[in-house]
Amino acid sequence: MHRRLGRGLAVLGATGAVIVGGAALANAATSGSHSSTSKSGSGTTSTTPAARSQPRSPGHCPHGAMPGNGSGSGNGKAKYNPEATFPNDFNMCQKVDLGHFATSFEKETSAPLPFSQLANNISTASCSFVRQHRSAANVNLTITASIYPDTSIATSQQKNARVNAQQVDPTFTTVANVGDEAILYRNKATQPNAPGQQAYYTESIRDGNLILTGTLIAGRTDSVDWTTSERNQITDDLQLVAKNALNKLTGA
What we know:
Layout: E1 9-12, E2 17-20, E3 36-40, E4 45-47, H1 82-85, H2 101-104, E5 107-119, E6 123-133, E7 137-147, H3 151-168, E8 173-174, E9 181-186, E10 198-207, E11 210-220, H4 228-250
Antiparallel strand pairs: 1-2, 3-4, 3-5, 5-6, 6-7, 7-11, 8-9, 9-10, 10-11
C-alpha cells in the first residue's frame, strides 16, 4: 500500500512534543496484497491496481449507511459503506467544527490537512489542525474516521483501545450518549521532564463498523503548567468536536 501522511506528523514548537496525526492510520498498514487509493491535502492521488474494486451499490443509503443491516452492536454486520461515506471528493475537514478551539487557540499555524484512503481491510479519512494561542501554547488536533469491513473487527479495535486506556490512564472516562461505545483518556506525556505543560488526550468512539478517534496534544510554550480547569475545558472541547464530527459524518 502506498499512502501519504502529509503534515499529519507535527512538531509542537518549543515544547518539543511530537504527535502522529491520525494514530488510527497506523492500523491501515497492510501487506502489498491489499489494494488502496489514498488522497492527501496536496491533491496527489496514488492508486494501486484493483483499488476501489468493489463497486458501490446503486441502492446505497445516504451518508454511507448500509441498507438492511443491524444496529452495529458487534454482531459482524457492516453499518457503513466506506465508498459511500468517503466518496472521491471527500474532505474530512469539512466534517469538523473546531468550536471553542477556534477561539482558545485563535491563530491557525498551518491550513487544515485532509487525508483519505480506501482499502479492502480498512478505509480511513482524517483531518489535522495545528493552531496556537499567542506565544503561550499550541495544539495539534487530529480527527480520524476508520471504517472496517466487519463490525466485529471494529469492536475488537475498540476493546484494544479500552485496554490501552486502562494501562495509561486508570481514571479514563466512559463517554455516554455518543455512538455505540466511547472512551476518553489521558496519554502519558511525551515530555517526561515537564508533564504538566502538556495536555495529551484521546477519545475513541465506535459506531457500528466505524471508529472515530480524536487525538489532541496541547503544549505550553511559556513554561507554565496546564491547570485542572484548563484541562477540563480541553477535554470538554475535544468531546464536543468528536461528537459533532461523528454526527456530520454519519448524518445523525
